[in-house]
Amino acid sequence: MNRVSVRRWHLYIGLFIAPSVLFFALTGAAQIFSLHEAHGDYSPPALIEKLSSVHKDQVFALGHHRPPPAAGPGAQPPRPKPPPGPEDDGDKKSTLLLKGYFLLVAIALTVSTVFGLWMGLLHTPRKRLGWLLVAGGSIIPTMLLLI
Predict the structure, then answer these.
(1) What would the DSSP string read from start to end of 25-36?
(2) Would 1 be classed as within a structural domain?
């Protein structure tokens, strides 16, 4: 394969997978901070929970991210968590920094993919093929999810 062929295949593959890359970058960013799971007084919007289920379980449905129903009679109450110790503070800080880094990566991946779409769709002689590849990369996973 020569350089022109490699660039052309890179363009076509990139246009086809760009919708999925955007989907996984955005839903992954929401999952970094557990925005797809109920905790405390927070209950995630149904759409975020469903999109998270697609990301994690490949199913567009409300998943196991909702809190369990109230316990019936005879059920044992949940155990309270122990208070955080001194070593937990360091873990929380490093975890928060790592989450911030991964959020930055997700944002950069989104921006880079949008730029790639822009370059691939507007700066190529085969615009119609480019749009068909992007449409196919959007429609095929959506159809597979719905069947």
Answers:
(1) HHHHHHHHTTTT
(2) no
